[in-house]
Write a structure and sequence with these properties.
alpha+beta, five-stranded antiparallel sheet
Length: 745
C-alpha cells in the first residue's frame, strides 16, 4: 500500500486520539467511533481478531510530530515509520527536481526574494547562484521584462491563481547576441491551512520552438498575401510588404527585363547573368537603387546562385553607389521550372542577428511562392494582351448608321467583359443591325470563340437574312466550333447568347430575335418601358432553333437597350432597377448607357440605340406598272428627282441601273413592282421590289448573245448590289457612290 502523507490519527497533549483517518481504520481495523477518545498506546497495542494486516503494512514502528499548521502546538500526528516515510520521499523528489530537471525552477518567499534555484535556472541566467539567491525578483532578473515578471509573480502570490506559459524575451549573458524566448509559469506555495509560503516559478527555453512557429507563420502569410494581384510589379511589392520587417530590415527585388516587358522569362546558363531591373525595394538603413534602374551584375555575386546563398556585398571602397557595401546579403533566385524571373536580396541591419540555416530554407520557400505567382501574373498579362487584341473595342459605324440610330456603347477595352461583344452593322436600304452577344465560356478560349462568332455575324448580316434565320445559322456555326474543339466535354462545349435586331428607318420597323438571356428593354418616347419585347430563347450551341422573334413599328425617338448577362448569376440586373433607370426618354443615349452600366455586372457589354426615321425629302418611291412601256417613264421620273435633289451623281449610271432593274422585274417578276430611291451623304441607294421570290443572279453572257448582261452592267457602275427577301417579296438593291468616287461605266 502507498504511504499516506496525512497522519494516521491526531492526538492531544495527553496522548488521547482526537481524529481517526480512513487509512487508520483500514490499517488498524478499528472504526473511528471506537478509537476517538481512547489513549493512543491502547489503540496501537490492541489488535482486533478479525483483522490480519499483511506483513509490512504497519511498517517498522511509528513516529510522532506536530501537525503542520497547528499554531497552538496542541495537536500531534502519528505516521507509520519505515524506509519510504513521507519526509524521505519529499527530500528525494525535491533533490531530483532541483538537480536533474530540464525545467528552470525559481523559489521565491513572500517578500518575492529568491530563496532557491536549480541548476538549469542558473544556466539560463549565466550568472552564479550566489548572485541570484537572496535578491529581490527585480534585482535577480534584471533585463527580463522587469515590470511584467514582478507584476505577474506578485499577482500569483496575492490571488493564488497560477500563471501558465507566459512568454518572456531576453538576451541572457550566456548568449548576449541572440534573443531568447522563455515560457514561464508561476504557482503559489502554501501550507495545509492555505497560508502563502511563497511562489515557485518555472522557465523553459522555447526559443527554437517560437522561431520555428514564427517562420511557419511568415510562410503562411506569404502564401496568403503574395499573388493577390496578377501583376508582376504588384507581386514584387507584395514580397516586400510580407518580409520587411518580419524577416529582414531591407530587401531588393530585381526582375529580368523580359519579365517586366511581359515577355516569356529567360532560360539562360548560370554563368550568363540576364539583364536585371529593380522592381521593388525597401529599407531605410541603406540607400537602395531606384525602381526600374538597371542593376550591376556583381550586385548579387559573381553569378546568380542556383539556391539561397549568403553573398558578401561589394567592398566599401567600391563606388557603385548601390548602398549595399560592407554587409552580407541573403540572395535567393526567383525561378520556376528552370526559368529565371529575377532575384531577391535580403539584408539585416548592422548589429542584428545574422541569417541562420533555417532562414535560408524559409527564404527559399517564400521565393518559390513568389516565382509561381510571377509566372501566373506573366501568363495572365500575356493572355490579357491576346484577349484584348481579339476582343478589341467595337468599331463605331457612325458614318454609315447615324441616319438610322443614335448609338451609345458601354464596353471595357482593357479586357473586361471577356467573351462579350456588341456591334452596329450597316445593312442595305439604310437599315442597321444591332448585335449583343456573350460566349458562355471563360478565359481566352471564350474570347477566341467570341471572335469567330462575331466574324460569322458580320458575314451572315451581309446576306440580309431575317433575324431568327441568322441566329439559326449562327447556331450551326457554334456547333461546328464546338466540334472543332474536340477534347472538350459536352458540359465544356462553347455556347453563347445573342440578341440580333434590325431597324429600318424608312418604315420605322424593328425586327428582333433572341438566343439566350441577353438583357433587352424597349423604351418608347412617352416613357413607357417594355422589359421583354421578345422572350428569351435557347442558347446558341445548346438546344438550338427555333429562336423567339418579333417585329414592331416604332415611333422615332424610341430607345432599344441591350446588354450581355454575366456568366454567373451574380451581378444579374434587377428588372425594377433597369426600368427605373430607362424610364427617362428625355436623357441622351450616352446618359442611359452610363446608368445601365451602374446596374449590370462589371463584365457586361451595353448597347443603347435610339431610333430615327428617314426624312421625307431623302426618299422617293414609285409604283411601277408591270408593262415594258413603264420603263421609259420610270427613267424620266428618276432623272427629274435627281435634278430636284441636286445629287452629285452620274445621271446616266443611275438611269442605266434603274432601267435594267425595272426591266428584269417586269420580265421575270410579279406585280406589285416598286422603285425606291434613298438619298444619302455618300451614296444613292436604288431598290426595286416585286412579289416574285425567284433569285436573280449575275451571268457572264457569250459574245454573240444579245441579253444576259443586265446585272453585270449594274455591278460595274455601282459600289455594291444584292438581294434581300421578306415573307411577301424580294428587293434587288444597288448602291451608287455620290461625288464621282465610285466606278464608272
Amino acid at each position: 500500500m502507498p504511504r499516506p502523507q496525512a497522519p494516521l490519527f491526531v492526538m492531544d497533549g495527553r496522548a488521547r486520539v482526537l481524529s481517526w483517518s480512513e487509512w487508520a481504520r483500514r490499517l488498524l481495523g478499528r472504526p473511528a467511533e471506537d478509537a476517538v477518545g481512547t489513549p493512543a498506546l491502547q489503540v496501537l497495542s490492541a489488535e482486533p481478531d478479525d483483522v490480519a494486516p499483511s506483513p509490512g503494512d504497519r511498517g517498522d514502528g511509528w513516529y510522532v510530530r506536530r501537525v503542520p499548521g497547528d499554531s497552538a502546538g496542541q495537536e500531534w500526528g502519528v505516521w507509520p515509520a519505515g524506509p519510504a516515510e513521507p519526509d524521505g520521499l519529499d527530500d528525494a523528489v525535491l533533490d531530483a527536481v532541483f538537480t536533474q530537471s530540464a525545467v528552470g525552477l525559481h523559489v521565491l518567499d513572500t517578500d518575492l526574494r529568491v530563496v532557491r534555484v536549480n541548476t538549469v535556472a542558473v544556466g539560463m541566467r549565466g550568472v552564479p547562484e550566489d548572485s541570484i539567491v537572496g535578491r529581490s525578483v527585480t534585482e535577480a532578473y534584471a533585463g527580463l521584462s522587469d515590470d511584467v515578471v514582478e507584476s505577474t509573480v506578485r499577482e500569483v502570490l496575492e490571488t493564488g491563481r497560477p500563471s501558465r506559459d507566459v512568454l518572456v524575451r531576453a538576451y541572457p549573458r550566456v548568449d548576449p547576441g541572440r534573443e531568447h524566448v522563455f515560457s514561464t509559469s508561476a504557482f503559489r506555495l502554501q501550507d495545509r491551512t492555505g497560508r502563502p509560503l511563497g511562489v515557485v516559478a518555472t522557465a523553459v527555453d522555447v526559443t527554437e520552438r517560437e522561431r520555428a512557429q514564427a517562420r511557419l507563420r511568415l510562410l503562411r502569410t506569404a502564401h496568403e498575401t503574395i499573388g493577390r494581384s496578377l501583376d508582376v510589379l504588384h507581386t514584387a511589392q507584395e514580397l516586400v510588404d510580407v518580409t520587411v520587417p518580419a524577416f529582414a530590415d531591407g530587401i531588393l527585388v530585381a526582375l529580368t527585363d523580359s519579365v517586366l516587358r511581359g515577355k516569356a522569362p529567360e532560360t539562360l546558363p548560370r554563368e550568363i547573368s540576364p539583364l536585371l531591373r529593380c522592381a521593388a525595394v525597401a529599407g531605410a538603413h541603406w540607400q537602395p537603387p531606384e525602381p526600374g534602374a538597371i542593376l550591376l551584375p556583381g550586385l548579387f555575386g559573381g553569378e546568380l546562385p542556383a539556391k539561397p546563398a549568403l553573398v558578401p556585398s561589394p567592398s566599401p571602397d567600391a563606388s557603385d553607389g548601390d548602398g549595399l557595401s560592407g554587409q552580407v546579403s541573403l540572395v535567393v533566385p526567383l525561378t520556376a521550372r528552370g526559368q529565371i524571373f529575377g532575384v531577391v536580396a535580403f539584408r539585416r541591419a548592422a548589429g542584428a542577428e545574422p541569417f541562420e540555416p533555417d532562414d535560408l530554407t524559409l527564404a527559399d520557400g517564400i521565393a518559390a511562392r513568389t516565382a509561381t505567382c510571377l509566372e501566373n501574373a506573366l501568363r495572365f498579362t500575356r493572355e490579357h494582351i491576346v484577349m484584348t487584341a481579339l476582343q478589341g473595342r467595337p468599331q463605331r459605324q457612325e458614318a454609315a448608321t447615324h441616319r438610322a440610330v443614335e448609338i451609345a456603347q458601354g464596353h471595357r477595352a482593357d479586357g473586361g467583359g471577356a467573351g462579350a461583344w456588341c456591334d452596329v452593322i450597316p445593312l442595305s436600304g439604310a437599315r442597321v443591325a444591332l448585335v449583343v452577344g456573350q460566349v458562355q465560356q471563360p478565359g481566352i478560349s471564350g474570347v477566341a470563340t467570341m471572335s469567330q462568332l462575331r466574324t460569322a455575324v458580320h458575314s451572315l448580316a451581309g446576306l440580309d437574312l431575317e433575324p431568327h434565320e441568322l441566329l439559326a445559322r449562327l447556331h450551326a456555326t457554334t456547333l461546328r466550333l464546338a466540334a472543332e474543339q474536340g477534347g472538350a466535354s459536352v458540359a465544356d462545349a462553347p455556347t453563347a447568347s445573342c440578341t440580333f435586331a434590325v431597324h429600318d428607318p424608312v418604315a420605322g420597323r424593328l425586327d428582333i430575335a433572341r438566343a439566350g438571356m441577353s438583357l433587352l428593354c424597349l423604351v418608347r418616347p412617352d416613357g413607357s418601358v417594355d422589359p421583354a419585347p421578345v422572350p428569351a430563347g435557347p442558347l446558341l450551341g445548346a438546344e438550338g432553333p427555333p429562336f423567339p422573334c418579333g417585329s414592331e413599328v416604332l415611333p422615332a425617338g424610341s430607345t432599344l437597350c441591350v446588354a450581355s448577362q454575366p456568366l454567373s448569376s451574380r451581378g444579374v440586373a434587377s428588372t425594377e432597377r433597369l426600368v427605373e433607370a430607362l424610364a427617362h426618354p428625355g436623357q441622351s443615349p450616352r446618359s442611359m448607357a452610363d446608368e445601365v452600366e451602374k446596374i449590370v455586372a462589371e463584365d457586361a457589354v451595353v448597347l443603347i440605340a435610339r431610333t430615327r426615321h428617314l426624312p421625307a425629302d431623302e426618299l422617293a418611291e414609285w409604283h411601277v406598272p408591270a408593262e415594258p412601256s413603264a420603263v421609259r417613264q420610270t427613267r424620266r421620273d428618276v432623272e427629274q428627282r435627281l435634278e430636284e435633289w441636286g445629287v452629285d451623281v452620274d445621271p446616266f449610271s443611275v438611269q442605266l441601273v434603274v432601267s435594267e432593274l425595272v426591266t428584269n422585274a417586269v420580265r421575270y417578276g410579279e406585280a406589285p413592282i416598286t422603285l425606291r430611291l434613298l438619298r444619302g451623304e455618300d451614296s444613292l441607294i436604288c431598290e426595286v421590289s416585286d412579289a416574285a421570290l425567284t433569285a436573280p443572279y449575275l451571268r457572264h453572257a457569250k459574245a454573240n448573245e444579245e441579253g444576259g448582261r443586265g446585272l453585270h452592267i449594274c455591278a460595274s457602275v455601282t459600289e455594291s448590289w444584292g438581294v434581300r427577301y421578306s415573307d411577301t417579296d424580294k428587293t434587288v438593291w444597288t448602291e451608287i457612290a455620290v461625288g464621282g468616287t465610285g466606278p464608272t461605266a
